[in-house]
Design brief:
alpha+beta, 5-stranded mixed β-sheet, 16 helices, 37% helix, 26% strand
Length: 480
């Protein structure tokens, strides 16, 4: 998919009410976005599918909604105050800032695309050594210099040194501004789960293994925030922390790897557009980590991470709070601090992935049809209802059909313009089914239902429309 197509997707998102630039009338605020009427529905559907798969389908996974603002010591215990940094480097010519590790990864990818695999392997080995060294910024800078990696925008080879930037937003609590009142906007939702470990376990009467799931906003002061909603400063996460006995974490890790990949496939994402990326450098708390990546128009990028976090988080909170985070196992009669397997998916990135994967431009006769081929369960509008013309009682009958369908589906009513144009508008926002009331409806109590993907039409009795749509949703397959 070309960059032009990505521009088309961004344009469609604004034109059709999926996503707007935040504070646009004032020139916008960088890397922040507002979700419009269709974007809100798409987000809601994805959230519900995630919650259903994680909580409703697992007897031992429950939910939590923790506060965004937390005691500042939480972030000292978690390591974010000291270690939540990105290695940044500035192009002196363009004054633009880049992540040094991503520049090197891009350089390695270019070498491989040119068939220079041996050279790429050599740079990759040095890259891994640099990531794991005590002087990561210096190691990354040395690679950029020796490989003469140029700025993607200016083409210049005139860099500053690599520096580490902490990504947390800070603010003040109370009327007096002083260091003692400083707190942070949470950079992740996971810590709210860890500090509530015993609260949730005891009140929900859970035994290890069990999970706690949470959806919510997180905030990161991204220095390099581009590529539409892929990398933003305010975003939403859907995370689950799964607590297990020490020594059993790899089994749980592999189990959740499979489940999480299958979830993305169940949303209609094409399998060839997804792949695994094993971390070259493990975080200080992890003993295994892998990403699910998707081939965006901007390249392969992370959508979800599955991490085996060991007992780091609970141990640190026990150390800093002075409160026991141990679990007594009634089966083994042992006390231990549980290990944790985490699944963490970015909702905004998932939305972008779904739109990119669903977007298609097709030649139909003499015109180009823009269509979003969403899974019907995710589409912002499931069914649109049209009267063929605005007379002969058709609008009234169409409204009655819509009211009936609203009990089960998100619907949209449209009576303006030619029927073909109405179909095209629905194609472009991803509506899978359109119901048309026409001249035959009054005589035989039937309607025409048109499918988005095939554009085929079927004649269905009014009292069977809901059943017909449910059957098609259950049988839907990507590309069919």
């Amino acid at each position: 998919m070309s960059s032009t197509t990505f521009e088309n997707i961004v344009s469609l998102c604004k034109r059709r009410g999926f996503i707007f630039q935040s504070s646009e009338i004032y020139g916008g605020l960088g890397a922040t976005y507002d979700y419009g009427p269709l974007g809100v529905e798409l987000k809601r559907n994805v959230r519900e599918r995630w919650w259903e798969s994680m909580v409703q389908h697992h007897d031992n996974v429950v939910g939590l909604d923790a506060a965004i603002l937390m005691h500042p010591t939480v972030w000292k215990a978690s390591g974010h105050v000291d270690a939540f940094n990105d290695p940044m480097i500035d192009d002196k010519q363009s004054k633009r800032r880049y992540r040094a590790d991503q520049l090197i990864e891009g350089h390695i990818a270019k070498l491989r695309s040119k068939g220079k695999d041996d050279e790429a392997d050599s740079v990759y080995a040095r890259f891994v050594d640099a990531l794991n060294s005590d002087d990561m910024p210096g190691g990354l800078y040395a690679i950029i210099q020796s490989e003469e990696i140029r700025s993607p925008d200016s083409g210049a080879f005139d860099w500053t040194e690599v520096r580490q930037f902490n990504l947390m937003f800070s603010t003040q609590v109370g009327p007096i501004e002083n260091p003692e009142n400083q707190i942070y906007l949470r950079p992740e939702t996971a810590q709210g789960i860890f500090v509530n470990f015993h609260n949730v376990r005891e009140t929900a009467r859970l035994q290890v293994p069990f999970g706690i799931a949470q959806m919510g906003k997180a905030f990161r002061n991204e220095i390099v925030a581009r590529q539409f909603i892929f990398r933003t400063r305010e975003f939403e996460q859907m995370e689950m922390q799964y607590f297990v006995a020490p020594g059993t974490q790899m089994e749980a890790y592999e189990e959740w790897r499979e489940k999480r990949m299958n979830w993305h496939l169940s949303n209609g994402i094409r399998s060839e557009k997804l792949r695994w990326h094993v971390h070259e450098k493990l975080a200080h708390y992890a003993d295994a980590a892998v990403d699910i990546t998707y081939e965006f128009p901007i390249g392969w990028q992370e959508v979800e991470g599955i991490h085996s976090r060991t007992d780091y988080d609970l141990s640190r909170h026990q150390e800093f709070s002075g409160k026991k985070m141990e679990y007594y196992d009634p089966d083994t009669k042992e006390k231990y601090i549980p290990y944790v397997v985490e699944t963490s998916v970015g909702l905004d990135r998932t939305i972008l992935m779904l739109i990119c994967d669903a977007f298609s431009e097709e030649q139909v006769g003499d015109e180009t049809r823009s269509v979003l081929k969403f899974h019907p369960s995710i589409a912002p509008v499931t069914v649109a209802v049209f009267p063929l013309v605005k007379k002969d009682g058709m609008p009234e009958r169409a409204r009655a059909v819509q009211v009936d369908l609203q009990r089960s589906f998100n619907t949209f009513y449209d009576e303006k313009g030619a029927i073909g144009r109405r179909y095209r508008r629905m194609d472009e926002i991803g509506t899978p089914y359109c119901v048309t009331i026409d001249g035959e409806t009054e005589s035989d109590n039937s309607v025409t239902i048109r499918e988005r993907d095939s554009m085929e039409q079927d004649r269905v009795s009014v009292d069977r429309v809901s059943e017909w749509i449910r059957d098609r949703i259950a049988a839907w397959q990507p590309g069919k």
